[in-house]
Design goal:
By secondary structure, the protein is an alpha+beta fold. Helices cover 19% and strands 22% of the residues. The chain has helices spanning 2-16, 31-42, 71-74, 152-158, 222-231, 251-256, 279-290, 321-327, 345-351, 369-385; strands at 20-22, 25-27, 166-168, 171-173, 177-183, 196-202, 205-213, 240-246, 297-302, 308-316, 334-337, 356-362, 401-409, 414-418, 425-426, 431-436, 443-447, 452-458, 461-463, 468-477. The strands form 4 sheets. The chain has a 5-stranded mixed beta barrel with strand order 10-11-13-20-18. A 4-stranded antiparallel sheet has the order 17-16-14-19, with no helix packed on it. A two-stranded antiparallel ribbon has the order 1-2. β7 (205-213), α5 (222-231) and β8 (240-246) form a beta-alpha-beta unit. The longest helix is centred in the C-terminal third of the chain and has 17 residues, at 369-385.
């Protein structure tokens, strides 16, 4: 329609303005004639107003007819009666605006596919929680969607037959896999963070999460080997639940062969910690919140301290029914009732609702195969009793539970020589060892003041007067008994395990009394 209007206008101009040929030269009309012709072209017409050419001569350069792809098929053959189409010309009078095609509105079409939701593919999605895909109807008539295909994994997760990925330390541990992670405390004495290895085995089936911690005191080495043996012996495909093992919690003390942190603070006196407290308190807070809070059960591994050794035993607050029930799952292991001191990892975990026990075995600064083997078997028995593994562990008779204990102390300084072994049962009046003055050669005997069993003792060494040399468990029951607060049979509180320097103690009780309080737990 627009093209016919242009042709009509060109013919009108050519009829009013004709070139004059003289002597072979073409003479163009005067400017006055051209103005007259232009006035005729733009003069109002009786017909409807036509739309002008939509091209913008400033923004869109005109393409010559001989360079356009459409010129050969659509443009008429130019002759002497035609003008160049590149001139902007008004449209003809025989085309109405209503005849122009409508331009579709911008935006998605009704039949366009839906836009997918932007998701982070690195985040695993639980198949049981995936939303069902929406059914797109092709017409107004409701269509019955095809039944969704069954997902065996999703069904197993919904029925509690398959485990789920674990998120720990900002890392996802997939089902039926093992991983080596690292925990870096926010506070470091060297000025840079020292990452501590964290071993994780996430089983194929659901179950509890058991945490094993060792070397909270950097010089206690047996627990490190126990964690290694347990974690590397687990098969993720056959494990129910998860096991988290931290072989060396106090990495800074371990590197120095020291029980303490570099500032001589005992890390196991600052749990659950304080993010604005001392250096030790900040480290304890970081570890407790980033690792321990993910546990359902905690076993904190320790040894004797300061040249002492312990019979493999569990320290547990038997007034807590969950903790008491937990101690029954370690096989043939001695249990000693003890309400842990405030600030210990065991106490903080129990206060947070996580049943926790301390497994003591052996002496510091050594790796002892007998102690490691007993601790490993005890933990594997715990996993079996929790239905996390299927293997059987054969033990001897159940060991008794000791609700009270006492320390036998040296009355003079000198050379301590022991005459009893760990685990040995003794009677009141039996000689446990001797202390001999190396100068005067005066010898004194250390005598048992109760019937009981040797649960811990000092190694042969030079000692000072008052040194705690032997720990006796006073046997009162051959079977575990759950003690609840308020029970008439509740024993005296026992808050100590071994003697240590640099800590605040309460005053001594009577000499060689039962459950004296000048030793801290763990």
């Amino acid at each position: 329609m627009i093209r016919r209007s242009k042709q009509y206008l060109k013919a009108l101009i050519m009829r009013n303005i004709r070139p004059i040929s003289r002597n072979g030269f073409v003479v163009l009309p005067s400017l006055f004639a051209i103005a007259v012709a232009a006035g005729l072209a733009v003069a109002p017409v009786s017909g409807p107003v036509l739309a002008a050419d939509a091209r913008d001569p400033v923004r869109e350069p005109v393409v010559p007819a001989d360079q356009s792809d459409e010129s050969t098929s659509e443009a008429p053959t130019p002759d002497e009666n035609s003008l160049d189409d590149s001139l902007p010309v008004a449209a003809g009078a025989d085309a109405a605006a209503s005849d122009l095609p409508e331009v579709p509105a911008t935006g998605p079409r009704e039949d366009a596919p839906p836009v997918a939701e932007n998701v982070d593919l690195s985040e695993p999605v639980n198949p049981a929680e995936e939303p069902a895909a929406e059914t797109v109807l092709e017409s107004d008539e409701a269509l019955q969607p095809d039944p969704a295909p069954t997902d065996p994994l999703a069904d197993a997760v919904a029925e509690g037959l398959v485990n789920q990925p674990m998120v720990l330390l900002n890392t996802t541990v997939q089902v039926a896999t093992a991983a080596r992670l690292s925990w870096s405390p926010a506070q470091s004495f060297e000025g840079i963070a020292a990452p501590t290895p964290v071993l994780v085995v996430n089983g194929a089936k659901p179950g509890p999460t058991v945490c094993l911690t060792a070397a909270v005191h950097g010089d206690e080495l047996n627990g490190i080997e126990i964690v290694r043996r347990v974690l590397y012996d687990l098969d993720p495909e056959r494990l129910s639940g998860a096991v988290i093992g931290v072989p060396i919690v106090n990495l800074q003390g371990f590197r120095r062969g020291s029980r303490y942190l570099p500032d001589r603070r005992d890390l196991n006196r600052f749990f659950p910690g304080n993010p604005r407290g001392s250096s030790a308190s900040r480290i304890a807070h970081s570890f407790f919140n980033e690792v321990i809070t993910h546990c359902d059960v905690l076993v904190d591994l320790h040894t004797g301290s300061f040249h002492r050794t312990n019979l493999p035993q569990l320290r547990a607050d038997l007034r807590n029914p969950q903790v008491a029930n937990m101690t029954n799952k370690f096989g043939s292991t001695v249990v000693l009732h003890s309400t842990a001191s405030s600030g210990t990892l065991r106490r903080a975990a129990t206060d947070a609702g996580i049943p926790a026990v301390t497994l003591e075995a052996g002496e510091p600064l050594r790796v002892q195969d007998d102690a490691v083997d007993h601790g490993t078997r005890g933990i594997m028995t715990l996993l079996r009793e929790l239905d996390m593994v299927g293997r059987m562990t054969f033990w001897g008779n159940r060991e008794p539970v000791y609700y009270r204990s006492t320390w036998i102390r040296a009355d003079q300084g000198g050379v301590l020589m022991s005459e009893v072994q760990l685990g040995q049962r003794v009677k009141r009046g039996d000689t446990l060892g001797t202390v001999t003055d190396p100068i005067t050669n005066v010898q004194s005997d250390l005598v048992a003041n109760y019937d009981g069993r040797v649960l811990g003792k000092a190694l042969n060494q030079f000692v000072m007067p008052g040194f705690a040399a032997f720990r006796l468990g006073i046997e009162e029951s051959d079977h575990p008994i759950i003690i609840t607060p308020g029970d008439d049979s509740e024993p005296e509180v026992d808050e100590f395990a071994e003697e240590e320097e640099g800590s605040s103690y309460t005053q001594d009780a009577a000499p060689q009394s039962v459950d004296d309080r000048d030793h801290h737990e763990d």
